[in-house]
Structure formats: structure tokens, C-alpha cells
Write a structure and sequence with these properties.
The chain has one domain. The protein has 1 helix and 4 strands; from the N terminus they run αββββ. The protein is an alpha+beta fold. Keywords: Membrane, Transmembrane, Transmembrane helix.
């Protein structure tokens, strides 16, 4: 027999146990690597979504706020959607709004899943 017990070599069982421990270690390292790739992708798409949201809200600075209305979800880029909610606040004595609150919401699809993440940016504008 090639494997001997004691000082002269390993027992077959000891060798199989060592290989099993090595395999578990390799699988754990591979899983950590895959999770770090996935986390990097999620960070990249969320930063991209926030940049698009910032751009959409900046465009509103040149719009006539009195005629601004809410918008339903529309796709900005593949997998990233934008919506705008407009709310009249603090009515004047004649019933016209003194303020409008603009809430821009951006949603994006998480990598490898069905859940959506979102971020909301709110502006309060005096008319």
C-alpha cells in the first residue's frame, strides 16, 4: 500500500480530509471574489443613476414652475428610470400655490435580482 500510517506517511483518510479542507477554502475564496464583482457593479449602476437624476433635476431650473406637472416613470437609460412628483404647498390667499415641492425619483434594477433600488432628491421652489 502506498499510504502508510505513522511517521512514514499519510493515511488515505488524512489525505482525503486535507483535500476536502483545501477545496472548501478554494470555494470560499471564489465566492468572495464573485461577491466583490457584484458589489462593484451595484455601486457603478447606482452612481450612474444618481448622476442621471442630478442632471434631470438641474434641467428643471430653466422650466416655468407654474406649469410644471408630475411625470410618470420614463426610462433614461437601460435599466434606469426617472419620475417627477410636483406638489403645491402653502397656498396664497387667492388659492395659488406659494411653493412647489419637486421630488425626482430614480430607480434602477439591482444586478442579478428582481428588486429595485431608488433614490429621491427633493427641491423646494418659491414661485
Amino acid at each position: 500500500m502506498a499510504f502508510k500510517s505513522g511517521k512514514e506517511g499519510f493515511v488515505l483518510l488524512e489525505l482525503l480530509l486535507a483535500l476536502l479542507i483545501l477545496e472548501i477554502g478554494i470555494l470560499a475564496i471564489a465566492e468572495l471574489f464573485l461577491r466583490s464583482i457584484e458589489a462593484g457593479f451595484n455601486t457603478e449602476i447606482s452612481l450612474q443613476a444618481l448622476e442621471l437624476l442630478r442632471g434631470e433635476m438641474e434641467k428643471l431650473k430653466t422650466v416655468d414652475f407654474s406649469s410644471l406637472k408630475s411625470q410618470t416613470l420614463r426610462e433614461l437609460e437601460k435599466g434606469i428610470w426617472f419620475s417627477l412628483e410636483v406638489e403645491n404647498v402653502d397656498q396664497n390667499s387667492d388659492g395659488s400655490p406659494e411653493y412647489k415641492v419637486l421630488s425626482g425619483k430614480v430607480l434602477w434594477q439591482e444586478y442579478g435580482g428582481y428588486e429595485r433600488s431608488y433614490q429621491i432628491v427633493t427641491y423646494r421652489c418659491r414661485l
